[in-house]
Each structure stands twice: as structure tokens, then as C-alpha cells.
Amino acid sequence: MSYKTILAHVDDSISLAPRIELACRIAVQENAHLVGAATTGISQFIYQSAVVDMTGDYITGYIETLRQRAAAGLKSFDEIARRVGVSSVEQRLVDDETAGGISLQARYSDLVVLGQTDPAEPSAVVGNDFPEFVVLHSGCPVLIVPYAGQFDDFGEKVLIAWDGSLEAKRAVHDAIPLLKRAVLVEVAVFNPSERPDTHGAQPGADIALYLARHDIRVDVRESVVPHEEIGTALLSRLADIGASLLVMGCFGHSRLREIMLGGVSRTILTSMTVPVLMSH
Question: Nearest Cα to 132, choosing from 124, 122, 142?
Fold first, then answer.
């Protein structure tokens, strides 16, 4: 398997360039079509509403400003893609609210690349729960790139968070194209005795065998830590082995518009130090 269509979220944040460069490098490795999508942040419901006068000077001027901002991001995206050497590139300016618009575009992609929420750079267009919303609503693996750092060694060493869940299995499967390129892959199993029905006699052995049949050799490391410290333990293990990618399932659901995440997922999304591939 491989990624043939990669969707990269484009905005005007200061962390745009490293994120797009990483998406471009993956596209080159996979010989994939790369789509840069920028949203105006204006919900389609507003366009369809009879309550809002879309012909007013203030509204039209505001929308035009948002479109110009999105177009500027797409221009930067295109320049980076051409410089890195992506052979198939597409720009999309989406008149929609960002989380829903990107989630919809992602349903026709093999991988989505977007940025971690930066609390120091709030956006009127991108909500604070944007990454987790896309993970939960797109049906597509999402590579979340930290808002700080450079990622030249991306994917050389990979840590997989494995608990035998459906979410973890989907993440592992979705990460196979990246795992095949890694020089080291470690499977971290925490507290396996809590889920004996999913781990078997040797925790991690089944997923190791599954990946071995894809020509991916892994090391399995079993640990016992308090459940509330698993997220911190994952971050610590990433540093210990010098990993440059974390692969994990995302646990959560939506209640109305509020995203309810599991504690480990929340810890990682808040404190991530390397790109994280999440699936739900």
C-alpha cells in the first residue's frame, strides 16, 4: 500500500512552512498527488441562510479579506511544493468552515497533514480543537505536525503506542508506508495485564508478526505505569529512543460540537514533540 493522495492544510500561521515541507517530502517519496487546501472559515450555512445579507459591503469585504489570506497561504504552499519537487500539485480554496471543510476533503485522501494547535497563535479561522475534530470526523489518518521544530529526520525512528484496540490497529495499518521506510520501529505496550483479551500470552507479539509480514521489523517494549501517566510515559520513550514519529489511535467522540478526548490523546496533542500519526 502507499499514499496516492495527500491533503495538506494550508493557513497563514508561522508554522506553515515546516508542515508543508514535510507533506511535500512524503508526497515525493510516495509519488503522490499533493493537495493544498486553504479555507476561508465561512460556513456554508451562512451562504445558504436567508437571515444574512451576503451582498452587504461589510460582509463582502470581510469574505474577500479571508479569501485573500487563504490565497496567500496557497501561494506559499505552491512555492514550497515546486521547490521540493512534488510532481503533482493542486491548490484548493475552500469556502467553508475549517474543521468541517478539511474533514470533508480528507474523505477523498489517503493521508492528511495538518498542524498542532499553537496556544500562542490563536486563529479566527482555525479552532483550538481542529486537529482532533479532523481525526474523529474524516475517516482518514491524520499526521499532526508540532507548531515548533524542524523535522529533517522524520520517520527514521518510530514509536507505536499499542494497546490492541481498534483505533491502534487502524493507526498501525495506516502508517505502513511510513513504517516501511523507518530504520527502527518500537512497539510500546503499557499495562498489558489490564487487557488480556486483546494482547495474548506475549503482549505485542501478534502486532509484531503482522508487521513482519509487511517486511517491517519491530522491537516490543512492555511497561507498567499508572494509567494517568501513559501519555507522559510515551513522550519520555520518544525522547529515550530519539524517535521522530509517534503512531497511535485517537480515543474520543463528539458531543454536540464539543470534542471529548481520552487522557492519553489529550496529553499527546497538547505536549507533542514530534509528528504524530493518529487514526480513529
Answer: 142
